[in-house]
Automatic annotation (TrEMBL):
Protein name, entry field: 3-(Cis-5,6-dihydroxycyclohexa-1, 3-dien-1-yl)propanoate dehydrogenase
Cross-referenced PROSITE patterns: ADH_SHORT
Entry EC no(s): 1.3.1.87
Matches recorded under PANTHER family: BENZIL REDUCTASE, CHAIN DEHYDROGENASE, PUTATIVE (AFU_ORTHOLOGUE AFUA_4G08710)-RELATED
Organism lineage: Bacteria, Pseudomonadati, Pseudomonadota, Betaproteobacteria, Burkholderiales
Pfam family, one: adh_short
SUPFAM superfamilies hit by this protein: NAD(P)-binding Rossmann-fold domains (SSF51735)
Gene name of this polypeptide: hcaB
NCBIfam families: 3PPDhyd_Dh_HcaB, PRK06200.1
Keyword Zinc: no
MF (Gene Ontology): 2,3-dihydroxy-2,3-dihydro-phenylpropionate dehydrogenase activity; oxidoreductase activity, acting on NAD(P)H, oxygen as acceptor
Domain of life the protein comes from: Bacteria
Family: Belongs to the short-chain dehydrogenases/reductases (SDR) family.
Amino acid sequence: MTPTKGWLDNEVALITGGGSGLGLALVERFVEEGARVAVLDRSAQKVAALRERFGAHTLVAVQGDVTAYADNERAVQAAVDTFGKLDVFIGNAAIWDHASSLVDLSPEQLESGFQELFSINVKGYLLGAKAASRALIASEGSMIFTLSNSAFYPGGGGPLYTASKHAAVGIIRQLAYELAPKVRVNGVGPCGMASDLRGPVSLGQQDLRIMDSRTPEAIAGILPLQFFPQPADFTGPYVMLASRANNRVLSGVMINADAGLGIRGIRHAAGGLHL
Ligand SMILES: NC(=O)c1ccc[n+]([C@@H]2O[C@H](COP(=O)([O-])OP(=O)(O)OC[C@H]3O[C@@H](n4cnc5c(N)ncnc54)[C@H](O)[C@@H]3O)[C@@H](O)[C@H]2O)c1
């Protein structure tokens, strides 16, 4: 097939957590850029909505959990069976900890919260990468992982979330090293946005959404660029990293897509004063 529409014509991408928020914005943008997309999401409702909205020639949605290797493998297989190959794996599904602090978490919550959050945010990225690796080596494709400002600075979550996103930095660096020269591995670190981002069941935060504990004004207020970004605002760097024409040279690179946050950091009260 010859290129007809966009930067990702004829490319096939698998996006985890593509059912809402940033993942859904990536589905929309990648389709707009000419890609065909597979999604792995644990929400049956979101998977059904995706199937209803996008035609079978454009999207295949798999309901499953990123913490189970078999589900990641099913999603990769669905992409390859439906569209013939896989060019891009986007590890994106994650949960937040609503900035639960070390002091406020009980030891039991710290343990169970760690198990649940790291299982999704870190193990999920590794299992997805593992499942996609063969197909990506074959296509000489790329992996992109969603990070966060919490991959680089404190104050955007509690220790569980911040540590999980720092761990994802290690995954990117190690996999960029291991999978060269066939596969480019990069990351994008967004800042706060309105999405369906929730917390761990083990912390009782499964129904708590990010905007239940944040306001658009509070998010805009800490950003040097002083606006409240929408999920779609973050999709450009993913397109650039995934595009074969625009990115032959970046691997092991993490793009801070955080409206300048690193320039002056997040202003927070000192947590040690709680006691
Ligand atoms: N919302 C923010 O402010 C913000 C800021 C920085 C980074 N991020 C990152 O953006 C990414 C996307 O999050 P979002 O904000 O769009 O939230 P979201 O909840 O809207 O999207 C995440 C999706 O992942 C799915 N999911 C969750 N756990 C899963 C699992 N175990 N298996 C399969 N699917 C699962 C959810 O059903 C949901 O559709 C995450 O990596 C998050 O850490 C978000």
